[in-house]
Amino acid sequence: MFDVGDFIIYGSNGVCKVTDVGPMKMPGIPKDKMYYTMVPCYIRDSEIFTPVDNERVVMRKVMSKDEAEDFISSMPDIGELEIIEEKKRELEYKQAVLTCDPTVLVELIKTIQIRMDERIAEGKKVTSSDSKYFHLAEDSLYGELAISLDMEKDEVKDYVKNKVIAG
Fold this sequence. Notes:
- The protein contains 5 helices and 5 strands.
- A 5-stranded antiparallel beta sheet has the order 4-3-2-1-5.
- The protein has helices spanning 65-74, 89-99, 102-121, 128-149, 153-166; strands spanning 7-10, 15-23, 34-40, 48-51, 59-61.
- The chain is α+β, with helices and mostly antiparallel strands.
- The two termini are 36 Å apart.
- A hairpin with a 7-residue loop joins strand 3 (34-40) and strand 4.
- The radius of gyration is 18 Å and the shape is globular.
């Protein structure tokens, strides 16, 4: 269970801060069911209510600063996704993003980056699907790392790049 003040990953909403844990204060909602009230860190003017026992959406604590630093150090060792059927590429991308797993997100970013580089080298345009899922994966990954490292989200990409290159 999460506590008030915890930063968690909540599915496609990304990083959220838990602002309350308890029964919903709305008419018609049973008072014996516990809910998290959360505020997404990167979605303005939004509030989320979800049952504490919700198992349909990924909910996990954000990495600690040490875990984030260790994770960044491990990035060069993370491979790419294995896309077996080209026709299912977008589905594979979507499933990867839905995991909310930082390792899978790095695999996805690397996979798409290689594909985009190849397409550009061949004089082709980057596909809208590649672009969409590349940005979703980066947004999700860098959003979590920003909270973990106490940085602005737009600073994280360069920070990661410098750490990975510097080794």
